[in-house]
Amino acid sequence: MRVLITGANGMLGRDLQSALADRQVTALGRADLDVTDAAAVAEAVAGHDVVVNCAAYTKVDDAEAHEEQAYAVNATGTGNLAAACAATGARLVTISTDYVFDGNATEPYAEDLPRDPINAYGRTKAAGEELALAAHPDGTYVVRTAWLYGANGPNFAQTMLNLAKSKDTWSVVDDQLGQPTWTADLAEQIVRLVDSDAPAGIYHGTNSGRATWYEFARAVLEESGLDPERITPTDSSSFVRPAPRPSYSVLGHDRWAASGIAEMRPWREALAEAVRAGALIA
Predict the structure, then answer these.
(1) pLDDT at 172
(2) C-alpha to C-alpha distances, 281 to 104, 151, 182, 273, nearest whole angstrom
(3) Does 121 qualify as catalytic in the annotation?
């Protein structure tokens, strides 16, 4: 199996390279491949059996003022990859986000619920899903994920540990609910997906369970041997940002079971192993 990873220098891209170490992997970062260039994409995809698209415009707040640039990468770029894969018969796994939903639910979002994003980043990622599934319906896997942390890039969990070095106490919002997800776990789940006979379509790639950012932050400190009582709860009104955030980002995992693949393990179990493995530095 020959695998192309786009956006290969990010947290997930780096962990995918490790998870696919026994395959023939071409790892291209942003400087190596501009996914908005359809001709360059077609050339890069040629000769590969699977493409995992981690390339993305992920600056959520900046996207509010630069939606056209975000659309170029998240939508047009994803569509280019899907078209190139359709032309060669390669399978595409493209990474998407919980932000394609409005965050008003009270039960986990099913894979087939309508998209209803509330910010520019979510709109561009939703468009990317639609373009990819339209261009290559029988060979595209959309894997939505959320609340990522890992060893190879800035992330919330590491920020909490960095704050612990400089602050006695600090506050974290307790009114947004989601699923902390270790990129190493997600990379392994993607490998299981491409190794399976699972049907094309949408899958939710998050660790199971749920937590608020406050609960996640406390767990990070606790697993790292630090005092979680140093963190106090607050609400989102204390951290107003240009892009509104969904208040409920819990994703349902029924599609995995229907495809004969186990859902990802509980987030707290994954966090404990991430700390033991040195993915987070206290």
Answers:
(1) 97
(2) 34, 9, 14, 13
(3) yes
Neighbouring residues of 258: CB distance < 8 A, sequence distance ≥ 6? none
Cα distances from 200 to residues 94, 127, 144, 261, in angstroms, run 11, 18, 14, 14
Phi, psi of 25 (to 5 degrees): -115, 130
> How many CB atoms lie under 10 A from the CB of residue 2?
13
Residue 11: CB atoms within 10 Å: 22
> What are the structure tokens assigned to 123, written together?
């709109």
Residue 172 contacts residue 235 (beta carbons within 8 Å)? no
What are the DSSP calls for 77-143, one per residue? Answer: IHHHHHHHHHHHT-EEEEEEEGGGS-S--SSPBPTTSPP--SSHHHHHHHHHHHHHHHHSTTTEEEE
pLDDT 10s digits, 134-163: 999 999 999 999 999 999 999 999 999 999
pLDDT at 64: 97
| Under-50 pLDDT residues of the chain | none
pLDDT value at position 239? 85
Asked if 216 contacts 147 with a C-beta cutoff of 8 angstroms, the reply is: yes
**Is 31 in contact with 8 (CB distance < 8 Å)?**
no
Task: Take residue 49 and report the two structure tokens written for it.
Answer: 């059996």
Catalytic residue among 121, 149, 203, 214: 121
How big is the CA angle at 172 (ends 14 and 234), to the nearest 5 degrees? 155
Please choose, from the candidates 173, 166, 193, 179, the residue with its C-alpha nearest in 3D space to the C-alpha of residue 95: 193
What per-residue string of b and e applies to 158-186 under the rule 16 or more CB within 10 Å gives b?
Answer: bebbebbeeeeeeebbbebbbbbbbbbbb
Question: How far is Cα 61 from Cα 37, in angstroms, rounded to an integer?
Answer: 25
pLDDT score recorded for residue 75: 98
